[in-house]
Amino acid sequence: MCKGLAALPHTCLERAKEIKIKLGILLQKPDSVGDIVIPYNEKPEKPAKTHKPSLDEALQWRDSLDKLLQNNYGLASFKSFLKSEFSEENLEFWIACEDYKKIKSPAKMAEKAKQIYEEFIQTEAPKEVGLWVNIDHFTKDITMKNLVEPSLSSFDMAQKRIHALMEKDSLPRFVRSEFYQELIK
């Protein structure tokens, strides 16, 4: 039985969903050894630069999610904090959208759009943003329509909603956390 604070009701559901996915993969009987697929991140996470921000930089993060996200150390600290709360999907979705906007090739754009859709947006996605975050059906529908012909702005509406939610919810929790308080000592 999952126990926790009332502020973290999704934690048990999230853990159960992750376990279900992992068990589903393990329980599949491959026809041959070549059919075994082990999921992995395409790009390993790069370690954050060890350059600790100045006190002034870190203090600016209290009022600006954008300044936090633009700073490698801040981004890494924020991500660690969110992982400690089992709520990193929003940030991962936002980062995936930022990476998507850097793609030049239409073929690679379509491939990345499909990957983001399958990982975060579609029903029963491993990190379904709509499940853990209140992305309304209108935003989800617009995003899905945008993916018929992927463009650099296909995920803009959903990404803006997630950004606003992180700014309103995750950032204030981060600023009150030990992660942040240690930085500004």
TrEMBL record:
GO terms for cellular component: cytoplasm; membrane. Coiled coil: none annotated. Keywords: Cytoplasm, Membrane, Signal transduction inhibitor. Pfam families: RGS. Residues 64-184 form the RGS domain. GO terms for biological process: negative regulation of signal transduction. It is found in: Cytoplasm; Membrane. InterPro entries: RGS, RGS_RGS5, RGS_sf, RGS_subdom1/3, RGS_subdomain_2. The keyword Membrane applies. GO terms for molecular function: GTPase activity. Inhibits signal transduction by increasing the GTPase activity of G protein alpha subunits thereby driving them into their inactive GDP-bound form. Binds to G(i)-alpha and G(o)-alpha, but not to G(s)-alpha. This is Regulator of G-protein signaling 5. It comes from Piliocolobus tephrosceles.
